[in-house]
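A reminder from the course coordinator: this example appears on the midterm review sheet, so study it carefully.

Given structure:
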């Protein structure tokens, strides 16, 4: 009897380890940040059967979980350059929140004035609704663990809350921010030894309304310098004045978390632990200041916002010269717009504005991992050198690249081929049909 139980136990364990729930779809999108969300939405709108895998609990990546809820930039030099289903979602979000769009008819003196402030919680709700309306299957808490190429696509092995699963699909769009699936497929990735700092977009509040005087601001700055000297604060904890932490808008570049990296579980954990520890230091410091004794922690987003980790090496690596000259390739599928914006050290960044009239573009080949079929990479992990990426990584460009990747994947599925061989003209037509703007 005992032996029979033992045998049964061993058999069940063995079966569980080899058996994995299996599903199939046409396109797997991995990662639901600006790029993945836009890609899944576009592919769903085009009628494709899509599964969207997201490692965390909500859509949006940096846009929502990283507290960077001011996507940009969709307009340049007086006209709209990025449009499509994801832009409609942003418009709906602003409207339902009673918010206000910037005035796009003027060319602002500072580029960030054309970023759109959105309510991140509402954006998650609307994005979930929009994806489900288009039959995109959202699968939170699920990450790919291995890929096997098949003659016409992929077997994607995933782990979902301890359960092994298998997805058979035709195309993969890697929007993980790290080109994680590209690496699994054997593609080359690029990164510098040190990453740009991240930022933890938390903010503090006071029970009483105050408007600090110039003297108070100077005193708080002096006290912060002393606290840094004594080791109570790190120099990167406060960039500017501690008062900046008291506004959701001002706190968006309030601090740095050096070597922020979310490409592995360890580095992502470390980044978040260090960002949160800094918030605690700053709260304690703020409460020690005359005038800020009632400071309280009002909000922190789920994650530290991370600017860069890995980028894939594609068939074209967009260079800074390509970017700043607004190079148009015959396979350019989307526009981008942002200054070259590399954050390198404690003093921060002096964005290099683009020359008037310049509009960088994203070619299909920068979304195609070199040497890998049936896979695209979009968002901040697209193929570009570091300086070009410092402009291409922003949300408008990530969304535009996500839509372009989705169009390529959809056309490849329709034509029964890989994005590399599929009709470029059909991709451009599809993008335009669904409202996206394609370089001529
Ligand atoms: C502090 C800061 C300030 C910024 N300022 C601006 C600004 O002013 N304007 C602007 O437009 N942009 C700004 N950006 C840039 C912009 O927010 C990001 O570059 C952009 O959101 C990147 O989008 P993404 O989709 O490529 O990647 P991410 O937003 O990083 O999304 C990747 C998603 O993939 C998921 N994921 C990762 N690995 C896996 C896996 N293995 N399986 C499944 N899911 C996975 C992640 O959980 C995440 O949801 C800023 C960024 C930071 C950090």
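Designed residues:
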């Amino acid at each position: 009897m005992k032996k029979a139980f033992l045998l049964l136990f061993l058999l069940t364990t063995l079966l569980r380890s080899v058996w994995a729930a299996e599903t199939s779809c046409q396109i797997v999108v991995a990662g639901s940040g600006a790029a993945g969300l836009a890609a899944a939405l576009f592919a769903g709108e085009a009628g494709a059967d899509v599964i969207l895998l997201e490692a965390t609990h909500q859509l949006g990546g940096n846009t929502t979980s990283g507290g960077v809820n001011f996507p940009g930039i969709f307009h340049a030099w007086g006209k709209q350059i990025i449009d499509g289903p994801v832009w409609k979602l942003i418009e709906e979000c602003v409207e339902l929140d009673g918010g206000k769009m910037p005035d796009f008819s003027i060319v602002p003196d500072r580029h960030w004035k054309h970023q759109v402030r959105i309510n991140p919680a509402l954006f998650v709700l609307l994005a979930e609704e929009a994806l489900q309306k288009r039959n995109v299957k959202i699968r939170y808490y699920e990450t790919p663990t291995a890929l096997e190429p098949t003659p016409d696509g992929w077997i994607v092995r995933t782990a979902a809350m301890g359960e092994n699963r298998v997805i058979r699909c035709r195309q993969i769009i890697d929007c993980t921010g790290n080109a994680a699936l590209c690496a699994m497929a054997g593609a080359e990735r690029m990164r510098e030894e040190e990453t740009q700092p991240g930022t933890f977009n938390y903010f503090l509040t006071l029970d009483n309304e105050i408007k600090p005087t110039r003297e108070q601001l100077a005193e708080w700055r002096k006290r912060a310098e002393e606290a840094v000297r004594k080791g109570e604060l790190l120099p990167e904890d406060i960039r500017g004045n501690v008062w900046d932490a008291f506004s959701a808008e001002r706190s968006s570049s309030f601090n740095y978390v050096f070597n922020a990296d979310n490409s592995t579980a360890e580095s992502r954990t470390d980044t978040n632990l260090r960002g949160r520890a800094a918030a605690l230091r700053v709260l304690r410091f703020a409460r020690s200041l005359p005038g800020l004794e009632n400071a309280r922690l009002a909000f922190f987003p789920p994650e530290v916002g991370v600017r860069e980790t890995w980028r894939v090496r594609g068939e074209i690596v967009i260079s800074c010269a390509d970017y700043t000259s607004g190079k148009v390739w015959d396979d350019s599928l989307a526009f981008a717009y942002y200054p070259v914006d590399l954050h390198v050290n404690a003093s921060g960044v002096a964005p290099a504005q683009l020359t008037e009239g310049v509009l960088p573009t994203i070619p299909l080949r920068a979304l195609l991992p070199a040497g890998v079929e049936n896979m695209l990479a979009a968002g901040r992990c697209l193929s570009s050198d570091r300086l070009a990426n410092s402009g291409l990584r922003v949300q408008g460009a990530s969304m535009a690249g996500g839509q372009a990747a989705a169009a390529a994947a959809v056309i490849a599925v329709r034509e029964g081929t890989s994005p590399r061989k599929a009709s470029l003209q059909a991709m451009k037509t599809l993008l335009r049909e669904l409202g996206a703007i394609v370089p001529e």
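The chain has eleven helices and 17 strands. The mean pLDDT is 95.
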